[in-house]
Amino acid sequence: MSPQEVARQLRQLKRLIDGSQEPVILSHKDADGDALGCVLAFAEALRQLGKTPHIVLTEPLPAQYSWLPGFDQAGSRLPPGATPDLAIFLDAASRERSGVVAQNLPPEVQIVNIDHHPSNTLYGDLNWIDPDAAAVGQMCLEMFSVYGWAITASMATNLYTALMTDTGGFRHENTNARALEDGARLVALGANPSQCATFVYKSRPLSTLKLSALSLATMRVEMKGRLVHACVTRQMLHRAGAVMAESEGIIDTLNSIEGELVAIMFKEVSDRLTKISLRSREPVDAAALCANFGGGGHVRAAGAEIRLPLEEAVKRVVRVVRHTIGELDEMPGAGPTAAGAGAGV
Known about the structure:
Layout: H1 3-18, E1 23-26, H2 33-48, E2 54-56, E3 74-75, E4 86-90, H3 99-103, E5 110-115, E6 126-129, H4 136-147, H5 153-166, H6 177-188, H7 193-201, H8 206-216, E7 220-222, E8 227-232, H9 234-240, H10 250-254, E9 262-270, E10 273-280, H11 286-291, E11 296-297, E12 301-306, H12 310-329, H13 336-339
Parallel strand pairs: 1-2, 1-4, 2-3, 4-5, 5-6, 8-9
Antiparallel strand pairs: 7-8, 9-10, 10-12, 11-12
Helix pairs in contact: 2-4, 2-5, 4-5, 5-6, 5-7, 8-9
């Protein structure tokens, strides 16, 4: 999207916000740091304008982010008597990923879709999609700045957390000059980077580590170290005294193995529903792989929901990934280095 088109989109969005008094703000289910940070900062900005925003997210709300300013303002349904006149979706690649309320909005309510996923389905009346943004938190920062809205320390904290978590603590490939500059600006506006990092990465309950240990014990390494996968079952959750949201960081551990090209975490949600989180390295496209199963995301991080039992989902996904990695070996010039060999099994 050209700068001119972005400017046009922002002007149109400003008109929609100015004409709204009771907007509802939504994001994807299984909300992460970017989703929560954005909706909380956006809601505070709208309250400063004298509006009455409603934050509606799909339960369970992730307790690990309960320290974020304004977290107590988020709910799982509209309050009694609410009459939303605008729906603002943040960090949601599809409307279906945002729960029951998103599916039952009155038809006259216009939809604003602000996202950075290349796989976004463009479901809004207004779609502002920036695949180059490391986090939607960056897009919110840009928007607030263009509009001249005051950014409080609590808003800066929420947006910094959005950016920090979606860049993996400023370690992922999407950590570029723009991301670092925006992070520094948010710190100058009042975000405390040490505190945010401590809450996100150094305040995990014991149950999270127990769950990680149980899951990593299932790890399988294939194709000379290029494919790594593990699972989280409902029995593991029970044994660890954990909830599924506590499995969020295990995929990053799998993705830290030398020589790995694809890391997959399989999560058993029910007897016939399995969620996958997938991470990849050059030249494998994670979003393209997950598109095979009705999912999507980013080139290096994507996910999907598969309506199959865990064991069947593992077989189906691993078969596709094996084929994808195998095709790399057949490419002209592919050798031990290009194929990532040497990691061992």
